[in-house]
Amino acid sequence: MDVSEIAQLSAAALISAMASDSWHLVRSRLAEMFTPSDMMLSRIDDVRAEIVADVPRARSRRDLLQGDLEDRLLADLELRNRLSTLLAEVQPSVTQDSRRTIQHATADRGGTTIQAGRDVVYHSRSTAPDR
Fold first, then answer.
1. Smaller CB count within 10 Å for the chain: N or C?
2. DSSP secondary-structure letter at 125?
3. Taking Cα atoms as reference points, which of 24, 8, 26, 27 lies closest to residue 90?
4. Buried (b) or exposed (e) across 108-125, using 16+ Cβ within 10 A?
């Protein structure tokens, strides 16, 4: 995989992670890759703040983030390897966090509804259906 592809995938995965439950884990892993004096982590935090606030220019910030990552990856082979490893670990959890299925089922006149999954919520009706 070439550097620009890694940068593009990294920027996309980071953006997805920013909106998922796994962001704090990803953020802590990124903090291990960049020194406190490095502005890269600050740029990533700025992009996340804009995405969370739904700032209109967040897309252009993502493109800038991709460019910054590409520049850094060209200069640092170790960072390229570490970021590739993080991507491999993060992408499945980001994808899983972002997939949410909502099911609705209605049963009346003594019918039964069966649904499988996590966090199933049952709402009973307080009024009887018309017969």
1. C
2. -
3. 26
4. eeeeeeeeeeeeeeeeee
Using CB atoms within 10 A of its CB, is residue 17 exposed (0-12), middle (13-18) or buried (19+)?
buried
DSSP sequence for 34-92: S-TT-HHHHHHHHHHHHHHTT-TTHHHHHHHHHHHHHHHHHH-HHHHHHHHHHHHHHHH
Cβ proximity of 94 and 13 under 8 Å: yes
Query: If you search the block for the tokens 């490095």, which residue do you land on?
Result: 38
Collapsed DSSP state (helix, strand, coil) of residue 30: helix
Q: Are 13 and 23 in contact (CB under 8 A)?
A: no
Rounded to 10 deg, the angle between the 39-52 and 58-75 helix axes is 160
Residue found by looking up tokens 């983030």 in the block: 65
Percent of the chain with pLDDT over 90: 4
Are 47 and 18 within 8 A, CB to CB? Answer: yes
For helices 39-52 and 3-18, give the axis angle rounded to 10 degrees. 50
